[in-house]
Amino acid sequence: MNRLQASRRTVLIIFMLSTFAIGMTEYVVTGLLTQFSNDLDVPISTTGLLLSVYALGVAVFGPILRMITIKFSTKRLLIVFMGIFVVSNIIAATAPNFEMLLVSRLLSATMHAPFFGLSMAVAVNISTPEKRTAAIAAVQGGLTIAIMLGVPFGSYLGGIFDWRYVFWFIAILGAIAFIGIILTTPNHKPIDTPNLKKELGMFKNKSVLLVIAIIVFGFSGVFTAYTFKEPMLREFAGFEVTAITAALFCFGLGAVIGNFASGRVLPRLLTERLMGALIMLAVVLVSFTYLLQFSITAFVICFLFGVGTFGTTPLLNSKIIIAAREAPSLSGTVAASVFNLANAIGAFLGTQVLEATGSYTTVTFVAASLIVLGLVITFVTHKVEDKALYE
């Protein structure tokens, strides 16, 4: 029994390292927007494309790639996807212009959702039923730890030296994860070969569709504001590199706490806890720019933003994966893709609002409005979803 426990922990640690590297790649650009703007000669608003293009790439190409490879070995795919990740970050580190940096982001984005989906599926398969939410949170935990440590470290490294060193660092992490996956990931083969037509039936599942709606129309508000967190810290709090690094760490610390706290929520309580998390997020976003104007409250509001954002994510991931029983191979990829579709929508909307108004406060108000819409859909979900799925 101890050997089985140790084996499960080892696999989850490797997955957490992998998702740490992937999460750092996705989110570290938010702490480097000013450096990209100065070095590559593009406006700050344009650098937001580094987030929206990545997120849109995950949303569009992730499910397509997973559907094409649905009958391939899980372990083999995890190895190939991590290889793609390493190459994409080497391209980013050597990018001669903004366009090539965008290309590297798109390449990395193609493997994001399938990797998360496969790793969450393996984590669930090696866990007992009562530990499945915690296993999903553990895989997601690498991403939140990246936000706590990787993003502020990357912001500091880029601010003090050069943003290219950040992507070299991520490529090295990816190479370590690549070796770890080869050595530790179990090569489980499903009893039945995955049937794509059957798995696509998840899109007829009312409970799944409602959660997708919450993410797309509500959670997208998070990235409307999050995309411009670094320039907001400069404008309202007057922070420079060291203080921005500390504020990003506070966000990440909140993200880790929120993520693992949500991992303890029982499946039958997911919807109720989700409503509480969304209410908290809406309040945080409405007050965000006002509290950034004072150093102490700036750190506090960044922490609470992290708690709310990543206290919500595992709940939504769990609701999709648990409810989509007809799609054990595809549900995790779809969940990751839908989140990134929401991220792309949010980043695009935030860019448009900022270009139209020039007001970060308006950006955060629009973000809060979207969260409230997600809360309304969650109330509807609570009334009509199939609760037997979460027993």
TrEMBL record:
Localization (cell): Cell membrane
Domain Major facilitator superfamily (MFS) profile intervals: 11-386
CDD domains: MFS_NepI_like
PROSITE patterns: MFS
Parts of the chain that traverse the membrane: 12-36, 42-65, 77-95, 107-126, 133-153, 165-186, 207-229, 241-262, 274-292, 298-317, 329-354, 360-380
Membrane topology: Multi-pass membrane protein
A Pfam family that the UniProt record links to this protein: MFS_1
Protein name: MFS transporter
Species name: Alkalicoccobacillus gibsonii
